[in-house]
Amino acid sequence: MPLFKKVLYPTDFSDLAEVALDYVKKLKEAGAQEVVVLHVIHPLEFSLPQFDDPFALDVATIYAHIPEIEKAILESHEEALKKIEEELKGLGFKVKTVMTVGEPADEIVNVAKQEQVKVIVMGYHGKGLLERILEMGSTTRAVIEKAHCPVLVVKKEG
Ligand code: ATP
Ligand code: MN
């Protein structure tokens, strides 16, 4: 069985995540056949005042309780996932898209385990001293620490 048969590609739809997508495509040469494309919704992105624990929600519940203008944001995320799905299918990958609610790093690690992927491919910004001290931009670092499988970390430059 190919080493990297099944891949998890978590995306926040940023330029950096797009660079990571190029590496997902390149993994085809290393035997990748299936890709799970994941977007994690941080519940605090939306106005959900009536919930004590917004992290315990699912996407459907969020849809039902946010104003129209925020629904448009969620729909655009869904469209963005769909677009990546079509792109990868066009290259011959089997694709599954997933949207969950939670803390991005925790959800990435959970979905990786549930889906039994062989590798996670994601972006990482080289951070300056201040960001390092404040431990900012640490989604990738947290995933590296907690993931059950290898993580392929892609930097934008260098
Ligand atoms: P900061 O969040 O401090 O602005 P950043 O966004 O530059 O920093 P990270 O949040 O660590 O850095 O993101 C790095 C990578 O993690 C992204 O390229 C993407 O692959 C993944 N990622 C981040 N947030 C999410 C999310 N909400 N859903 C799925 N993947 C994500
Ligand atoms: Mn981020």
Automatic annotation (TrEMBL):
Domain UspA: 4-155
Superkingdom of origin: Bacteria
Cleaved signal peptide residues: none
InterPro entries reported for this sequence: Rossmann-like_a/b/a_fold, Universal_stress_UspA, UspA
Family indicated by similarity: Belongs to the universal stress protein A family.
Protein name (Swiss-Prot/TrEMBL): UspA domain-containing protein
